[in-house]
Structures are given as C-alpha cells and as structure tokens.
Amino acid sequence: AYLTVSIEPLPPVVVGDAVTLKCNFKTDGKMREIVWYRVTDGGTIKQKIFTFDAMFSTNFSQMENYRKREDLVYQSTVRLPEVRISDNGPYECHVGIYDRATREKVVLASGNVFLNVMAPPTSISVLAADTPAPFSRYQAQNFTLVCVVSGGKPAPLVYFKRDGEPIEATPLPEPPAGAGSWAPRNLLHRDLDDTKVPKSLAADGEAGAGHPFATAEPPRGLAAERDSVTEAIPETVVSREFPRWVHVAEPIYYFRHTHAPVSDGTVEARATLTWTLNPQIDNEALFSCEVKHPALSMPMQSEVTLVAPKGPKITMTPTRARVGDTVRILVQGFQNEVFPEPLFTWTRVGSRLLDGSAEHDGKELVLERVPAELNGSMYRCTAQNPLGSTDTHTRLIVFGTLHDLPILVSSSPGSLPSHRGFRLVLAFTLTVILELT
C-alpha cells in the first residue's frame, strides 16, 4: 500500500477571521486514523486538536472501500471559527492506513502548514520626549516627537507628516542591543542668539575683508553633516528680549524606528522624529504619525499640534481664605490646547514662598496654615513648554479677626488707639469692605 499526504498552503489571515485547514491524502490502503497537531515551543510540543479513528467511525464505509484497487483521494479539514494571535504557528496532519498485504502493519505519513495570523495595531499615540521642558529664548533646542504603536503583528510601517505633507528625514541607526531608552543626541551645539555675538566678531563680519563670519564654537553632531547658514546681525538691530532666530532655510529632520516583541505575540513599534526647534515657525504646526499595516484597509493616524501655552486659568480654594486655612492655588487650564505638556513654576513676588523656598514646581501651590502676614501677597505662575512661556499673577487676600493682626491698641477706658494701630485697623477694615463689595 502507499500513502501521500499534503496540506494546502494558507495566505496570512487576520485576527477574528474563520480559517479552514485542509489535509489532502491519497492511498490504496484501508484507513486507520487521522490526527491533527498544533506544534508549539519550536517543535518540542505537539498538541492534539482533532482525531478521527476509523475503528469507531459509523460512516467509515462511506469514505472508502479498501478492496478497490484504484486510488482513493480524501480530504480532512479542521475549521478555526475565530483565529487569535495564539493560533499563530505550524500545524501537522498525520494519517495512518493498514497495509494491504498484512492488514496488521500501519503505514504513516504526515504534512505540515504554517498559519500566519496578523493583527492590526490597536493603539497609536504621539508624545513629546523629555517633557515637561522649559522654553529657551536665547538658545536653540532639540525637540523629539515619539510615536508609539501597540498591538500590531507584524511590525507596522510608521512615518511622520507635517501639515499633511510627508517628512523627508535622515534615518538614524538603531541603538545597540541591551541599550536603555534612547536619548536624542545634540544635533546642534551652536548658540543661535544673535544678541550674544561679540561686537568684535560682528564688526569683522560687516567689514568683510576676506574674513568669514565665525562662531565661538564650530558646529558638531549630526547637524554639522550639512552646511549651516548663519547671518551676521549687528547687536543694535535685534532686541535682547525677542532675538531673531537664525536657522537653515528648511528644518533637518532625523528619524529612528525601533520595535520590540510583546509577550502576547504582538510588536510595539516606536518611531522618533528629532529636529532643531524653531518656535517662530513650529508654533501651531500640525504633526501626524501614520501607520501602514497589511491588516489595515487604510492608514491609521494620530495628530498633535505644537502650541505654546496661552492665558492660564487659575483658581484658589477657599475663595475666602481666613487665617490658619490651607490655601490651594491651581492651574485648571489654558485658553488654548497646549502641546507638549507645560512646566509650571510658582514664585512669590518680592519674597520667598511660605516654606522658605524661592520657587515651587508643579500645577498646584499649597500654602499650609496661612498667617495674616500673607494678606495682599502676589504669586506668579510661569507656564512654559519648548515653544513659549507665559506668566499669570494672583493675589492672596486673607480674612481674619483683629487679634490676628500685630496691632497695639490701648485697653484703658476712654483712651484712643495709637496712630500706628489706628492706621492698621483702618487698612484692614477697608480691605475687608473692598473684598466684600
């Protein structure tokens, strides 16, 4: 007797699809059994998923007649109604027949197929690296967008767009194996603030005389791979408060794409886009991260707009603070949508904070058990991100009884309070009246 087994190959399937595994075999012997296996752990483990035993089959006679001399062709199918990522891997079909001569000897043959299960990405997000970060008016800064794509199998193709147009970026090599989180290298080391150019250098640049304009430190790093364009600007032309940024005509972008396997069989892809930020042209620029994947019918995307903070909204609780209360001053939001996340810094105008520190970082400032001396004190909140900075102020009014104030008043019957004490009482009373009105 003879036996040949083959399994029809399968194209990649998507999670949730119904899949049918087909095992074709040809023989002139008597059927013994058919067994399907799912192979795991690199072939070391075989798990039975289907068994057909001809000895106990009531419809066996309808499948074949072993007395016939001609070839008989059969097909065994296994259907997976909704495939999962865990179903990915090799499968084997084992067929056994009785030999025609002895009827006791069993002839075995098998075939195998690999089921490739794809999964579309389940989430995509764009965030800024190293946030919150301060704004620098006088020094160029590197800025990095990170696009994180999770849940896909295989790894997706990730790319960036600016204002709807694809970005042509210089690829960066992958970090070495075993390295931690990648921190973007300094792409530009020059100080691009024209107001800091020494007058001697500015004069040389104006005079010409065959001496090119020079900087204190030559450009290094990745940005130095292309010619830099600078302009000699006299110090009197540019305001120190709002200096003119000098950049190359078009931003130079650098791109890196990495992926890491996840325990559930999917891949987490990370794409980073790094360039030298120019707040004048990058503020309100729309960046999008798009993903192409064979399991997606159309690209998947996430968008962010780079925006500097504007018009912080501050609340104070309680609204009528009394001596001894705990006062919380909180930034609730802005007049616009801000990206990336701002850095908040609190200071007290003209003095230190209640705990003695010069400043406090965070979205909320807490003043424990406020004393009467804080009445009328002004607090400044500076909100900044790499695109810009804004300040807002709020004044603390502390209500309290007269004995909370350091006033010297005579207690003798019929006597009048001292001039100093009378002025303090009058000032406190007027403050309360004004607040109530």
Automatic annotation (TrEMBL):
UniProt xrefs under InterPro entries: Ig-like_dom, Ig-like_dom_sf, Ig-like_fold, Ig_sub, Ig_V-set, Nectin/Nectin-like
Residue ranges, annotated region (Disordered): 202-221
Cellular component terms (Gene Ontology): adherens junction; postsynaptic membrane; side of membrane
Gene: Igsf21
Description of how the protein assembles with itself and partners: Interacts (Ig-like 1 domain) with NRXN2 (via Laminin G-like 1 domain) in a trans-interaction manner.
Main location: membrane
GO BP annotations listed: heterophilic cell-cell adhesion via plasma membrane cell adhesion molecules; homophilic cell adhesion via plasma membrane adhesion molecules
Protein's name according to its UniProt entry: Immunoglobulin superfamily member 21
Role summary: Involved in synaptic inhibition in the brain. Selectively regulates inhibitory presynaptic differentiation through interacting with presynaptic NRXN2.
Membrane-protein topology: Lipid-anchor; GPI-anchor
Keywords: Cell membrane, Disulfide bond, Glycoprotein, GPI-anchor, Immunoglobulin domain, Lipoprotein, Membrane, Postsynaptic cell membrane, Repeat, Signal, Synapse
Domain of life: Eukaryota
Domain Ig-like: 16-109, 312-397
